[in-house]
Records
---
Amino acid sequence: MKNIVLIGAVLLAILTSTKAWAEIRAGSQELGIHAGAIFGDDLTETNISGAQPELGNNIAVGLNYSYNLSRHFGLEGRYTFNPNKAEKTPTGEIDLDLHLVNLNAVFHVNPLDPFVFYGTAGVGWAFSDIDRGISGTVRGTPVTISDDDGLTFNAGIGLKWEVSQDISLRVDARYRYIDQLVDAREDQLNTVETTAGVAWVF
């Protein structure tokens, strides 16, 4: 119980001490890193040798840069790397690395507070790099499917903690649409991405 009280007192002291300056500032920039997970979806619209390949669930890491046009509105460039796998293929799991590049708009709901809620949405491009082709048959016809790239769209919500003038912490969750990741019999992917990050504010 004493430990809980002590932790609460420390958090209160931090919040009290940072409230005077921790806010979103017009013209400020943020350079940060993020890490979390991407939850996959079907890679193909048809079965390959009786199995429907899927993009797995795996970790995601990346970099982000933001410029705040005003207290409420900002623009963010975001790169995310997802070392994933193509699962449920006729030949077992296959390494499939995913690269996501996005330009997002960000809206800060309460920019003057230490804890800032925000919404974000944007478009970009998804690049996949598969270790080997997905081989099998479709209705008796041999096929080999390789990697491809396609349009991606994301939209989500998050929370920033403006710890100080120089440091910002964030967590967010977003829906991510990917047009395609393989080059034949492709399927559009509907995925979920959750990340947490830290940024240097200047």
---
Amino acid sequence: MNPIPYGRQQISQEDIDAVVEALKHPYLTQGPRVAAFEEAFADYIGSKYAVAVANGTAALHLCAMALDVNDQSNVITSPITFAASANCVRYCGGNAYFADIDPETILLDIEEVRALIESKPRGFFNGIIPVDFAGYPVDLEAYRALADEHDLWIIEDACHAPGAFINTAHTQQQSGNGAFAELAIFSFHPVKHIASGEGGMITTNDPKLYNRLNILRTHGITKNPDLLQENHGGWYYEMQELGYNYRLTDIQCALGLSQLKKAEAGLDRRRAIARRYDEAFKGSPVKTIQPPPGVGHAYHLYIIQVNNRKELYDALRAHQIYAQVHYIPVHTLPYYRKLPTTARSLPHAEAYYSRGLSIPMFPALTDEEQDFVIEKVLEFAR
């Protein structure tokens, strides 16, 4: 059996042809494929606007800037996420706070968030960054109600969840569509659903935020005649605030556009792989995460929980199955451990970390490879 990673991109000849065609075009960056990718992605997600950026971390940083996070800001996020979900607050000088997770879903626990908010004076907190961990969508309708009660904004970290949804009594809540969060972000890292090498996207329904994001991702500069304070001619631009060079290239957008056409097929395959895992581990000592009916999990990751996780990790590697741990709780990382806002215990997050393991989950995973993974996991568990 060849080595089996936990995640891997799937590049077709159509993807290669799209990139080659982009390389032949006069514009390698700041050209028409950027706008085309943004428009197609917004249509896929169901949002009004999309802004393509260099990566998911850049997307988070720009969102925090657009919402005016500063050294007086206090923001709550999940400890079970990649560090960037909290780092974006720190980039702007703000304070990150962590609330514990729900041990059944591994998502940020809304009751823990509520308790943290209510432990401080009204107005202390400014926003919440919930994370659609592993592809399991957060109930943003509930978070919107909580945020409105306390005058907070929401950034949805949907990097793991394009295509995820929750069917509610009122509507289908599509991850990243802007119905309940001011902003949402996505990543196009190679192991994600849509790969563009590196890359990210911000979605929103707010035209003011959209316009500001477009300026912030390009050094704070605009040539838009409607936004200029003066106009000296066709060459004229204005730097209206301090921004960054967080643009995505036409080459990457060409690959992203091609990958987007296959997004639903890839999502179907991920869900089929998850169903096979669910069935195989039923009744075993291996704990899995089972979304209830009406939750459309996007399965960026397939998470299992076992005793002796380190031993299973090593046993799988001995058979060239390269499982991974997602994630080390952010509040336990040395940088955050030394900060007074984050130096506290979160028992559910820490208990999950001691048991959680991501096993191979990607559309190109064959049934034979998956059977081999299942066999080795069950051999160890039993």
---
Amino acid sequence: MFYKANEPHGLPYNPFKAIVAPRPIGWISTLDKDGVPNLAPYSFFNGVCDDPIILMFASGGMKDSALNVSHTGEFTFNYVSRFMKDAMNISSASVDPGVNEFETAGLEMVPGETVSCPRVAGVAAALECKLLQIVNPDTLEGNKAPYFIVLGQVTGIYIDDEMITPEGRFDTMKADPILRSGYHDYVCLDELFELVRPG
């Protein structure tokens, strides 16, 4: 099949998120302007580049995380391992601003080193970020898209020592990430293999 993106596709569910998958989960911690912690997972999240290290997450509307970043200029990405999937899912619930999702999900906080916002205790890794910019893209139709892209430069990196191999690599298989797919689907890794780029 083929369909134009601005026309009906005739399927019972939109396939886009299942096609662009799997995606790392951006479990983003922030502080609101009153200093109350916030924690929420974002499906549209990824690394942008590695020199300097820049991350992005996209918020559908100006949700609490993006709003908090706009006020404080900081956020932290927390790595989601399989054993944390239930806590991550709990933190995805729509709640009133000012609710501390660390508490609702039964999670402990660890203070940030280069940012004020905390990270999730027990994660395999966390990346502390300072805001570069928030982009509200223009569409081809000349309207503003209903998403805000938050770009942050990494200022601090936490790695659980248990996740570093004897060769000095981050052990992705041991970190056991869960990844977002389409619909209500998530996937886990069952194999890791290496391919060396030609030349």
---
Amino acid sequence: MEHRVDPWLILAVIGIMGASLTTLHTVSRVIGTNLLLRQLLWGMIGLGTLWLLSRVRLDVFERLAPLLYGVGLIALVAVLVFGVARGGNRAWIAIGPLTIQPSEFVRLAVILMVAAWLADRRGDRLKTGDVVVAVLLVGIPVGLIILEPDLGVALTYLPILGGALWLGGLPRAAWIILIVLAVISSSAAWRYVLKPYQKDRVLTLLQPERDPFGAGYQVRQSKIAVGSGGISGQGLGRGSQSQLRFLPAQHTDFAFAVWAEATGFVGTTLLLLAYALLFTRIAKVALTTDSRHGLILAALVGAWLVFQVVVSLGMVLGWLPTTGVTLPLFSYGGSSLISTCAALGIVQSVWRFRLVNQ
């Protein structure tokens, strides 16, 4: 058994959070609220959560998975009934002065539940009934989140399902069937699920010039901010896009654009290297554990984080539609930061007990 956390993973987490705090400090003056102190507090809570969960044995997570999953579903239903609406989404629950976004924490409960179920299965191949179970485990919370509606967070659940099917040994023919069903579902979602503003974002991606001051405004300003950073950046607190408030959502969805404008190619490269180090260490944990349950946990957490980082950066750079997906550990938000640290704490638990065959 390993008695300490992985120092390289912790270094990557602290490096990303440090860049986040620096970015939030530069935009706090513009937005008018003290984002830095709040994020610093949430960061300390997040690191404490990471450390505490790293000391929990994997069998405890396996036993608690059904309970946490059930509580998560209840929380998502409660959001639809009692939730606080922001920007058209009813995704938060207010507890006194605090607001919590349950969908960020339920994602971790889904990972725990899927990992516990998959590790307990017998056989090398998923059967039809197994695929249905996996789809339901992920699809039920996703459906509740879509009702909020929060399509961005709902998308971050998809790599959990994909990872589960891959690790479960889904046959190639089944993958083809699922891809066909996904295409059909996408067509149906375009006609009956997506709202007009969401369709505008997709069409603007395909034709950027169609609405430069409407649906395409956010991405247009983001690309200007990233490009204006040059090699070494314009300096902290000096970028025109962020400081003159041309760039919207600069502390959440487009926080990376602020960092790129301020630090340029050098700063963005260092930040991306920190993410690469984080993903490498998660992969190291998954590949060195003797526990199948631990391997699945680390793999699902890694799949989710890689997917969210890719989608967030693609959105900022104008390669993907604007979906409201934030950059893990970097964008402002307590629920996202703490839930991500909690997930990494579970990965660290796998690292601590990786040589224990459970």
